Amino acid sequence: MSTRRVPHGSHWGAYEALVEGDRVVGVAAATTDRDPAALLHSVPESVHSASRVRAPAVRRGWLDGRERTGAYRRGRDGYVEVSWPDALDLVAGEVRRVLDEYGPGAVFGGSYGWASAGRFHHAKTQLNRMLALLGGYISSVGSYSHAAGTQILPHVLGYDANNGPSTAWESLAAHTDTWVMFGGCPRHTMQVEPGGTGDHRGGPGLDAVVAAGTEIVVVNPVRSDGPTGPNCAWWPVRPNTDTALMLGLTHTLVSEGLHDTGFLDRHTVGWDVFCEYLLGKHDGVPKDAEWAASIAELDAGEIRALARRMAAGRTFVSTSWSLQRADHGEQPYWMTVVLAAALGQIGLPGGGFGFGVGSISGVGTPRQPFAVPALRKPPNPLADHAIPVARIADMLLAPGAGYEFDGRHRTYPDVRLVYWAGGNPFHHHQDLGRLSDAWQRPETVIAHEQYWTASARHADIVLPATTTLERNDIGASSKDPFLVAMHRAVPPVGEARSDHAILRDVAARLGIEDAFTEGRDEEGWLRHLWAQGVESARAAGVELPGFEEFWAAGSVRLPLPPPEIPFAGLRHGEPLRTPSGRIEIFSATVDSYGYDECPGHPVWLEPAEWLGAAEPGQLHLLSTQPATRLHSQLDTGPVAAASKIHGREACRINPHDAATRGIVEGSLIEIRSARGTCLAGARLDAGVRPGVVVLPTGAWYDPDENDPTLDRHGNPNVLTADRGTSRLAQGPTADTTLVEIRPSAAGPPALRAHLPPALARRAPDRGGVTP
Ligand SMILES: Nc1nc2c(c(=O)[nH]1)N[C@H]1C(S)=C(S)[C@@H](COP(=O)(O)OP(=O)(O)OC[C@H]3O[C@@H](n4cnc5c(=O)[nH]c(N)nc54)[C@H](O)[C@@H]3O)O[C@H]1N2
Ligand SMILES: Nc1nc2c(c(=O)[nH]1)N[C@H]1C(S)=C(S)[C@@H](COP(=O)(O)OP(=O)(O)OC[C@H]3O[C@@H](n4cnc5c(=O)[nH]c(N)nc54)[C@H](O)[C@@H]3O)O[C@H]1N2
Ligand SMILES: [Mo]
């Protein structure tokens, strides 16, 4: 059989799908990609996986009078396959009923998640679009990636510097003498970019910085997540204590007169107030190197020496997104800015600070000066009612309850219908046992999914969605020089339909089809979005080819804009969009909120759980991003499978901690926290700091039938706490988790995470099922 090569793209990079007949049999990385992602090898399995949802399915208890107790509990129940017309009638009927009875404020359409790379068939955007046209929906603000950063940085810098100009790899290689990486710079996290990439620039960019001889300090409890080499040092910091370390470094600068008073005077406010805290004027505790060393368990002499070195040359301070995914996550972010301000190099090439360098592919690449082609959504009339993204279980458990968010008092809406497309809350949320309880509350849960994920298995109506290889789309990221023509490679698997096609048919039943489609089909939309991109590019002086030429070529390479130097304008007198126009080391606004856990300037606060206050035997769990997947995506594939132990996610543990627990390489282990328990396999690693264990996210939640707090597969989110960073940001705090570990007494129990649930054969077409 002849093999076709079909140009395509994904969050983990552009590639050609190798297709024989109706099957994807292989992949070839884009020839433009200097550092292709290993994840590509899981693509063929992902299309034809036994875990695909093949037909619309309705939860049995929902059909039997909307039962959700006992065997009918969401997450435990079986499903009945139904015809598309019946499924669509049920969905449209529920949406209409809830809108009529309770209004749009009872519909949760936040639908957080990464979905897939194409810019037209973006599931969440498609869903939000339809719900906005119906009068609105409850959405969410912020991200699991950097919610705390997104909320604190506008107070400090006037905008969310997680997204915006970033210091280019080239600047770092050319100018930076010392780079202190809080959270390291993992190569595998740079394999991913929302919308994809035609050339992974992070790995080669980092190599060039190391080769240039930059002195690098990797501050990370984990050795492997930063570069190695003669000019690279590893500082195995205690988790969640980086703020104390940054304070200690700043204290040395001040006590030795190495801070840049000129920069602080001209470009910041509040340094004096902060200094009173730093020097211990009121609490009698100077935040000096010894103090920092005792909290972070590092060496005070080395802290002082590093501070001197940082002041002696061009220094870049990077802080990964992970640092703020922790209790009081606002503080390490704010303190990063203060440390860099004290050094006075903000706005100079290769100096200052950066967030998320290494967290994702695009940081370090200059942004395109135009809006890349992408489906936009109409404004949501209920935007003001959005919840902080990680407060979803609180919202479902306590409708009407009050809460604080960034200085405002708010009330949780009374949600009756949850509609999700393109995300996996039973992957991404913390304390899944609690989420499972919260998920029993709404009257109806609708999900579009490609696979029988845990979230699909907790829905009442599950509609099978196509993967990108079953539809045409445009792949694009504003931080990438490529636009990718994602050609359809194979026909839909089973009865899957695109999210757009599903929602078009729901919209038709609700009388808004024309508003939803604007009279366009898939090809019409792609041409329309491309034309918008051409226009936007032209206005910025960039010439894009016509759609036909783009589509036939498979991708377009654009010139990269010149490297960005964040905050260069500040040095030239351009004010920031903060109340003072300057960097706010003290924020009167934040101070006015009166939050002890997020006061008016950065402070060290003990996290709710950390090694400094652990019981004997407790370990600090870091649930990092998986090298073998994108979150829960591709978990069924061969790359993830090869890294597992007894089919369980591998948990990295220091050999000393393993030995004292009777654990050897490959042991099946039980990890327990105050929230729940999961099984995992042990992988011994001397590059993990003693007292710390690493269990990446994304092994599909596989709960015990009778206990949702017990997972058999190695999903860290049964262990993590569902606690906001502070009242300011309410961000997720997955990396603040203490656990206990022991060898598992029993043999490995059967796994059913990747198996479809009990599925009854299709019910006869009832021409409009009434449950
Ligand atoms: N403990 C812990 N938890 C974490 C994190 C952590 O560090 N520690 N990290 C957090 C972070 S940063 C993030 S961003 C989240 C990620 O959380 P999510 O974005 O929810 O994770 P994904 O696995 O990418 O989920 C996407 C889902 O969409 C489905 N999907 C893909 N394409 C389509 C499509 O076209 N249509 C439809 N209908 N469905 C589609 C996939 O099958 C998958 O189930 O996780 C968070 N959770
Ligand atoms: N392959 C792959 N890449 C991905 C993703 C994926 O799922 N798979 N997800 C993408 C997404 S959505 C996001 S948001 C980004 C997230 O990017 P990050 O948040 O940067 O990724 P993490 O793996 O959570 O953590 C990065 C590093 O921080 C360290 N760390 C954790 N806690 C602490 C601490 O308290 N102090 C210090 N100093 N270090 C600490 C960890 O050991 C780890 O090495 O990754 C993206 N990239
Ligand atoms: Mo993320």
From TrEMBL:
Residues 704-733, 746-771 are annotated as: Disordered. CDD domains: MopB_CT_DMSOR-BSOR-TMAOR (cd02793). Keywords: Metal-binding, Molybdenum, Oxidoreductase, Periplasm. It comes from the Bacteria. The keyword RNA-binding does not apply. Residues 8-48 form the Molybdopterin oxidoreductase N-terminal domain. Residues 52-508 form the Molybdopterin oxidoreductase domain. Coiled coil: none annotated. Residues 619-737 form the Molybdopterin dinucleotide-binding domain. The keyword Lipid metabolism does not apply. InterPro entries: Asp_de-COase-like_dom_sf (IPR009010), CT_DMSOR/BSOR/TMAOR (IPR041954), Molybdopterin_N (IPR041460), MoPterin_dinucl-bd_dom (IPR006657), Mopterin_OxRdtase (IPR006656), Mopterin_OxRdtase_prok_CS (IPR006655), Prok_Mopterin_Oxidored (IPR050612). Its cofactor is Mo-bis(molybdopterin guanine dinucleotide). Belongs to the prokaryotic molybdopterin-containing oxidoreductase family. This is Molybdopterin guanine dinucleotide-containing S/N-oxide reductase.
